[in-house]
Amino acid sequence: MRILRLTAVALLLACAFHVSAAELYHEPFRPQFHFTPERNWMNDPNGMVFFKGEYHLFYQYNPFGDKWGHMSWGHAVSRDLVHWEHLPVALPEENGVMIFSGSAVVDWKNTSGFGQDGAPPLVAIYTGHYTKRPLQNQHIAYSTDRGRTWTKFSGNPVLDIGEKDFRDPKVFWHEPTRRWVMAVAWPVKRNVRFYASPNLKQWTHLSDFGPTGSTNGIWECPDLFPVRLEGKPGESKWVLIVNVGSGAPAGGSGCQYFVGDFDGTRFTLDEASQLPLWADYGRDFYAAVSWSDIPKHDGRRLWIGWMSNWEYAGVVPTSPWRSAMSLPRELLLRRVDEGFRLLQTPVRELRKLRSQHVRNRGGTVDEIAQWLRQKNVRGAQLEIDVDFEVRGAAAFGLKVRQGNGEETVIRCEPASQRLFLDRARSGKTDFHAKFSGVYEAPLLVRDGRVRLQVFVDTSSVEVFANDGEAVLTGLVLPVSSSSGLEVWGTETGPKVRRFDIWKLRSVWREYGSGGRSGMATTSLPFIFLTAKGEKLDVRAGMSLGADDYCLVRGMDDKARSAELHSAVSQNCILRGVSQSEHAGTCRRPADWKSALRFSGRSVVNPTVCTVSHQAGGER
């Protein structure tokens, strides 16, 4: 490994300050209102917790490339579940231990003893995956600065049963028994184990659940929480989430759930429950887990899932990032003749993205189709809300992202009581043999009505039918100009009672004014190279690949974060300059090899910036 050494080189460069991340968020297939990392690989959501006005989203992340590996916890925060601020890697792989999935809690009572000055700590509970021996066990880390920096517990691991596969702890405080409860997957046994602890450090086994439901694939990423009953204030049931690595209805990975009761020790399945039950019947919803510590006055149960599938996740043709999260969703339980069913609806905060609303108050399918053509309603980022009155057995539905011989078809079949998502001609599908296909969900026509809520983004379609009783999530990869919208059916088919369409604004093109609370971006057209032409991490001298980046933390006296992204074919991007500041310094922690300085006269108009890298030696 060659350490980057520079003489006091000053580069005087023409650069422009922007309030958007245009360099990173204009790529083909880049989602515009779903969370994605700026670059590199992402999979499971982890450590979701609400604290001091911020929703934290940690996630499985490879800091060094767009393939799975070097698992660490990436980190982002949001005040509204819509606009996200990227933060530095929270928990990095180190000493031969990858940071696998887990959860985070606010230790309000400071049971762990990690709190300071009467303030509760955030505690992350995660799986340590050992790279040089077949072992997984459970670790903890804590933060006393709102999750900005983390300290790994010196007594790790806190739970070890000596197993090769034992992972994904979800922890919550159980008030009736006044202790912490952990649900953790024993994957190959198709089992969820429950443990209890008074302090997050010592754990006692309580009980096991499984195998039952879908057992074709390994069990992963469990979650356990109460969910309110629709229309029944104050009433709830417990829901156990178990994600499966294969064997889901659409093929590959998926998310099943169980409804029952939890007494603080054991989860008991409802006798009337028909198994298995699936949260999402599409191909691309996995590792779904919920946020902890949502305030009582809010009262919602919120969750999010990884929007991909293990059968093809590693080859989806996006760059420089790979993978996105689903929309955040609110959960309720609906009592139906068959038992209890999970309802999922996109969070209400998404409404702030709405623009250019058009509405039709109803008519035949042909009349609505003609109205859509007259209005020339098109878009790659849409919210569609349509209410159908079913008048027979004929199929009907929508076509989105239509054009250039491409379309994604949503089809309702009252005769078979099924809802379909057809992406056979949705765009680019040839990168994997199992990507193209038609996927289906059960959909009962209730009171002669079917309501479809559809969210269309640059590379995804999410369908919520009958208030989220049936959900289908799928990636789609059409060309950008395939943006048509069509309603279809037969003369004897349904009547449209109401048709609403909104174009949705990008959360990333608002990066400065919305996504980063007034933080601006400086684009600097340079890269640091070694004498051999290799890029290096300026912190540790690590040789990086073409899509990797250097990370600089500790901007100015207020300790804002800053990132210096470096790629051979792209500009460097330095973030963290507030709109009220004119200059700043990236201060050097003791373990850094170098420091970066920058200055600029303005953060609004094009100007000249001076950037210097101070160390000594060769470039």
From the N-terminal CA to the C-terminal CA, the straight-line distance is 15 Å
Low-confidence spans: 1-21, 511-619
CATH superfamily of the largest domain: Glycosyl hydrolase domain, family 43
How many structural domains? 3
Largest sheet: 7 strands, antiparallel
Helix-and-strand structural type:
mainly beta
CATH top level of the largest domain is: Mainly Beta
Helix tally?
A: 2
The coarse overall form would be globular
Query: Any guess at the CATH architecture of the largest domain?
Result: 5 Propeller
At CATH level 3, the topology of the largest domain is: Tachylectin-2, Chain A
For the residues shown, what is the average pLDDT? 83
Q: What is the tally of beta strands?
A: 43
**Beta-strand percent range:** over 45%
Please provide a written account of the structure.
Strands 25, 26, 27, 32, 33, 34 and 36 form a 7-stranded antiparallel sheet that branches. Strands 6-5-4-3-22 form a 5-stranded mixed sheet, with no helix packed on it. It is built from 2 helices and 43 strands. It has 619 residues and is mainly β. It folds into 3 domains: 108 residues, no CATH class; 285 residues, Tachylectin-2, Chain A, CATH 2.115.10; 155 residues, Exo-inulinase, domain 1 (Jelly Rolls), CATH 2.60.120. It is 3% helix and 47% strand.
List the helices and strands and how they pair.
Elements: E1 9-15, E2 17-18, E3 40-51, E4 54-62, E5 72-78, E6 85-91, E7 97-106, E8 122-130, E9 136-143, E10 151-152, E11 167-174, E12 179-186, E13 191-197, E14 204-209, E15 219-229, E16 232-244, E17 254-262, E18 267-269, E19 277-278, E20 286-290, E21 301-306, E22 321-322, E23 329-336, E24 339-346, E25 354-360, E26 363-364, H1 365-375, E27 382-389, E28 396-403, E29 406-413, E30 418-422, E31 438-442, E32 449-457, E33 460-465, E34 470-475, E35 484-488, E36 495-504, H2 511-515, E37 519-524, E38 550-555, E39 560-564, E40 572-578, E41 583-586, E42 595-600, E43 607-614
Parallel strand pairs: 3-22
Antiparallel strand pairs: 1-43, 2-37, 3-4, 4-5, 5-6, 7-8, 8-9, 9-10, 11-12, 12-13, 13-14, 15-16, 16-17, 17-18, 17-19, 20-21, 21-23, 23-24, 25-36, 26-36, 27-32, 27-36, 28-29, 28-35, 29-30, 30-31, 32-33, 33-34, 37-40, 38-39, 41-42, 42-43
